Amino acid sequence: MKSSIYPCLAIKGKIAEAADFYIQTFEEGKIIQHVPIVIQIELSGQKFMLLNDGPSTSPNPSISFMVVSESPEETEKYWNRLIKEGKALMPLDSYDWSPKYGWVEDKYGVSWQLFTGSKADTPQKFSPTLMFTGANAGKASGAIDLYTQLLAHSGIGGILKYSKEDGENPDFVKHAQFKIKDTTVMAMDSSAAHAFSFNDGVSLVVECETQDEIDKYWSQLTSNGGYEVACGWLTDPYGISWQIIPKDIIKWVTDPERSERVMNVMMKMKKLVIADLENA
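and the corresponding structure tokens:
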């Protein structure tokens, strides 16, 4: 069963090129949906949405993707492909936590943490990794609690705090791993001066079976400082963007006979209403 939560990357004007690049880079991939505004790809069985329009922002390292490889050679192969026209955020090297690790931002601005380790610890190939910086530094634990209590099929795998030797606040999260809707997500706090914070260049898409599910997630994620955006998009209290959508939305908006009507109805909505979209 494929996960019902996956990332959306805003890559304006280059989604076809980016789709090919990621499929060639990670090899085990294919295009599963191609319309002018959206391409959905599958990498190692995991879905990614590439968006051609919408957000005015671009991806940044506040949400990166941990990529697990079981050999240093595999990690190095990905690095050599992603670094072309990209830039190193942490050099490819041996570290205490991994014999071969590097953090790279590719030519589309998407960040990847390439990690050599055991898939027994992280069976998912790609894990969205949330970095809480600036005013959000120290809020990773609260966010993890919110997400795992709200979303179905969730749980906390482990939370590692900084030690005093790390030169960071010992109450802050150094690394956490948790699941939401059977999707592994990672998180960390950083009080270092970063020139970025969460934006809608990378969003998390949640496919919902029922209106009750949409209503529940929408209500909780837009409260306590979160807010509604448009067309199923919202921003949560930490500034992370989510798309709360019916699982059949792509089918409706790509149906030649109804797509225009569905889009007209959806453009007037903030929270999506399944019955209104189905009946459009």
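(Above: one complete record from the training split.) The longest strand covers residues 87-95.
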